[in-house]
Design brief:
The chain has 11 helices and 14 strands.
């Protein structure tokens, strides 16, 4: 008998579908910890012609046949259809449900799922960047949170809690226009306008965006940028091997701070802003230096109000799958909010 057969029985299949990787897991909505961490497997999306093919490969390995599924996708969910923003997959919920033999299938935006999953985060799953982060989603008081983070693209969502109910609001906030706040950022914007015309914040705040920032900095300094990947830019900064890489990371974190503060204002996310995304972990030394938080707070007449907003980096290893597990809990008709007064 394979090791996978020793997993607890689970009726729910989860997927976190990004532009580069797809991660699958199983969930038990009735459990205190609904996401079965030992069931998680990751695959490269480029290795499969469709999401159904990737899911079938996972189920064959794991040896389970769940009846229900929640799939979180990096793209806009329009009814039962999703066109991946940074990948060629086009997904139809009815067709996917048929192909996998599911009784039910729910498609959600990946960052909306992360937002819904905030109540499942433990104290050790977050790292405060400024004021301490309080317990999430206790009681029935109205609360509003924002979640954003760079990866293959820039994801943005909002969690609104009203009368004890959770509403994960899907957005395409990563595609709003970039608003520079310094002469250097204006010069970078001009550099990018020659390539893209209109410049969204995702052109700067994602993996390829970091490369764009580095190339623009090098162009302004009249030096050769080279054909560096996001990982190579980050490595050059961490090793202090290239001052242009260091500056690119500094600017990236500065601009992320500005954008996060803008979304706090836009959504009225006074209860907290959460950062998620795999590329943030190696940037933690810069995020904690204080410039990120200074740019977050720098909101003119609302600077004092924004300075009181808690900001936290989600350190849970699989926030996307944790979010899909939270959606599964709600879809199964079970409560997600913990009892007790707000803290």
């Amino acid at each position: 008998m394979s090791a996978q057969r020793s997993l607890p029985p689970a009726d729910w299949l989860l997927a976190d579908v990004g532009g580069t990787n797809v991660r699958f897991a199983l969930a038990q909505p009735a459990a205190a910890a609904p996401l079965l961490l030992e069931s998680i497997r990751a695959y490269r999306v480029a290795e499969f012609a469709s999401l159904a093919d990737a899911a079938k490969a996972y189920l064959a390995v794991i040896g389970e046949a769940p009846a229900h599924a929640v799939f979180a996708l990096a793209g806009r969910v329009e009814g039962s259809l999703v066109q991946m923003t940074n990948h060629a997959w086009s997904i139809s919920a009815p067709q996917l449900q048929h192909d996998l033999g599911l009784h039910s299938l729910k498609l959600v935006n990946d960052f909306a799922a992360i937002g819904v999953g905030l109540p499942l985060l433990a104290a050790g799953d977050v790292l405060a960047l400024g004021p301490s982060v309080e317990a999430i989603a206790r009681g029935r008081a109205p609360q509003t949170y924002c979640v954003l983070g760079p990866g293959t693209g820039l994801g943005v969502s909002t969690l609104a809690i009203r009368d004890g109910q959770l509403f994960g609001l899907e957005t395409e906030g990563g595609h709003v226009s970039f608003a520079p706040t310094s002469d250097e950022e204006i010069a970078i914007l001009r550099q990018l306008m020659t390539r893209f015309g209109r410049v969204s914040i995702e052109r700067l705040l994602c993996g390829s965006g970091l490369v764009n920032v580095h190339r623009a900095i090098c162009a302004l300094a009249q030096v050769e940028a080279g054909n560096l990947s996001p990982e190579e830019v980050t490595a050059g900064a961490r090793q202090h091997a290239d001052p242009h890489c260091v500056h690119a990371i500094e600017l990236f974190c500065d601009m992320l701070g500005s954008v996060a503060g803008d979304f706090a204002l836009s959504f009225g996310a006074w209860d907290g802003v959460y950062l998620a995304g795999g590329m943030l972990d190696p940037l933690l030394p810069w995020l904690r230096q204080g410039r990120f938080r200074l740019r977050f707070n720098d909101k003119g007449r609302f600077s004092q109000a924004v300075a009181r907003v808690p900001v936290a980096l989600i350190t849970h290893p699989q926030p996307g799958l944790l979010g899909t597990a939270a959606v599964a809990v709600l879809a199964a008709g079970r409560p997600l909010l913990r009892a007790g007064p707000a803290q």
